[in-house]
C-alpha cells in the first residue's frame, strides 16, 4: 500500500516500488494499491493474504490505516494501531521515553492557539531552553516542517512552517553530537541491526538531506566501540518496546561528547527506497533486501496468528 495525502506520498511510492520488486523476485504475486477513498472497496476486491504497508506520514503511519486493516481482518506489516500512533507523536514518545528511563533532549511544546495568544511568554520559554533550538511539528515524518532556529528573530518563521503540518509544535534543545540510528526487527523476539551513523553536510538532517545522497555521509556500521554499539542496540530495543512497536522500526538517537545516548524518535515505517537507511543496516547484518521484505511479511502473519489466538481465548 502506497501513496496517500501526506507530504511524503512520493517517497512512499518509491518505497513501495522497491518492495514490490523484491517480493516479486521471491515469487510473490504483488499488487500496488494506492491509499485513497476507495481503499476499503479495493482491499475487499483484492482480498490480499497480507498487506505490506509502505506508507509514510499520516494517515498511513499514525495508526489510522492500521485500524482499517484490523477491522477488515487483514494481516499487515509494521506496528499496530497503538504503536503507530505513539511513535508518530513526538510529544507522547518523549513522555514515554522519560517514564521508561530513556534519556532524551530537553523540550517544550505548545499549540498554535497558545502561540497566537501568548507569543511573548512562549518566546521567553524558548529562550530559557537556550538557542539554538530545533522546531518540529509534533506528528510528521522525514523531518518535514523542521527548522534549526539560532535566534529569537528566526523563531516566528519556523513556527509558521511547523504549524502548516500540525497544530502542536515541539521545540527541542539542539544537541551537539553524533547522529546514530538503529533498526529493530521483530514482534516479541527482537533483532537490533548494526547502528548507522549519519554525518549531514547541512546543519540538520532534514528532508532534502535524507533523500539527496550527496548531502549526507552514511557509515554502516557506525564506527563505535563494541560497548557503545551494544548500548545503542539495547536502548533501541527498549524504546521499541516502550512504544509497543512490532514488525520493524528505526530508532533515532544522538551520541553526545560524553558518550551518552539521547533518544530522539522512533520511525515505525522507515524508508525502503534505494537510498534509505534501514535496508543498509539490514545489509550490514547480512540480510538482503528481498530477505528483509520476506521477514516483514512473515512477522505480519505471525502477529495475525497471535491476535487470532487471543480472540479465541
Summarize the structure.
Helices cover 42% and strands 18% of the residues. The protein has 313 residues and is of the alpha+beta class.
Task: Describe this structure as you would to a colleague.
- With 313 residues, the protein is an alpha+beta fold.
- Among the domains are: 86-103 and 176-293, D-amino Acid Aminotransferase, Chain A, domain 1 (2-Layer Sandwich), CATH 3.30.470; 107-173, Dna Ligase, domain 1, CATH 3.30.1490.20.
- 42% of the residues lie in helices and 18% in strands.
- It contains twelve helices and ten strands.
- The protein has helices at 9-25, 39-46, 64-71, 81-88, 90-99, 112-117, 119-129, 155-165, 207-210, 226-242, 277-284, 289-312; strands at 107-111, 133-137, 147-149, 168-173, 177-186, 191-192, 196-200, 216-219, 247-256, 261-267.
- The strands form two sheets. Strands 5, 6, 7, 8, 9 and 10 form a six-stranded antiparallel β-sheet that branches. The protein has a four-stranded antiparallel β-sheet with strand order 1-4-2-3.
- The protein starts with 8 loop residues before the first helix and ends with a helix.
Please outline the helices and strands:
Layout: H1 9-25, H2 39-46, H3 64-71, H4 81-88, H5 90-99, E1 107-111, H6 112-117, H7 119-129, E2 133-137, E3 147-149, H8 155-165, E4 168-173, E5 177-186, E6 191-192, E7 196-200, H9 207-210, E8 216-219, H10 226-242, E9 247-256, E10 261-267, H11 277-284, H12 289-312
Antiparallel strand pairs: 1-4, 2-3, 2-4, 5-6, 5-7, 5-9, 7-8, 9-10
Amino acid at each position: 500500500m502506497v501513496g496517500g495525502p501526506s507530504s511524503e506520498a512520493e517517497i512512499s511510492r518509491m518505497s513501495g516500488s522497491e518492495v514490490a520488486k523484491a517480493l516479486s523476485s521471491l515469487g510473490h504475486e504483488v499488487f500496488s494499491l494506492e491509499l485513497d477513498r476507495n481503499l476499503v472497496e479495493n482491499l475487499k476486491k483484492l482480498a490480499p493474504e497480507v498487506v505490506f504497508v509502505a506508507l509514510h506520514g499520516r494517515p498511513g503511519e499514525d495508526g489510522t490505516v492500521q485500524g482499517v486493516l484490523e477491522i477488515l481482518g487483514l494481516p499487515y506489516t509494521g506496528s499496530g494501531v497503538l504503536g503507530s500512533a505513539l511513535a508518530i507523536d513526538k510529544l507522547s514518545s518523549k513522555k514515554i521515553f522519560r517514564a521508561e528511563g530513556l534519556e532524551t533532549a530537553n523540550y517544550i511544546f505548545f499549540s498554535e492557539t497558545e502561540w497566537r495568544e501568548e507569543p511573548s511568554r512562549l518566546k521567553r520559554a524558548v529562550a530559557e531552553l537556550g538557542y539554538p533550538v530545533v522546531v518540529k511539528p509534533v506528528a510528521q515524518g522525514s523531518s518535514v516542517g523542521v527548522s534549526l532556529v539560532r535566534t529569537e528573530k528566526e523563531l516566528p518563521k519556523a513556527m509558521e512552517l511547523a504549524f502548516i503540518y500540525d497544530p502542536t509544535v515541539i521545540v527541542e534543545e539542539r544537541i551537539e553530537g553524533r547522529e546514530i540510528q538503529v533498526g529493530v526487527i521483530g514482534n516479541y523476539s527482537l533483532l537490533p541491526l548494526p547502528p548507522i551513523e549519519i554525518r549531514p553536510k547541512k546543519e540538520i538532517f532534514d528532508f532534502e538531506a535524507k533523500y539527496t545522497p550527496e548531502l549526507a555521509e552514511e557509515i554502516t556500521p557506525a564506527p563505535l566501540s563494541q560497548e557503545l554499539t551494544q548500548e545503542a542496540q539495547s536502548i533501541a530495543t527498549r524504546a521499541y518496546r516502550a512504544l509497543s512497536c512490532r514488525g520493524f522500526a528505526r530508532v533515532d538517537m544522538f551520541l553526545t561528547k560524553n558518550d551518552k545516548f539521547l533518544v530522539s524518535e522512533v520511525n515505525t515505517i522507515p524508508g525502503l527506497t534505494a537510498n534509505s537507511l534501514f535496508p543498509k543496516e539490514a545489509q550490514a547484518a547480512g540480510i538482503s533486501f528481498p530477505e528483509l521484505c520476506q521477514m516483514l511479511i512473515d512477522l505480519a502473519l505471525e502477529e495475525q496468528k497471535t491476535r487470532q489466538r487471543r480472540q479465541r481465548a
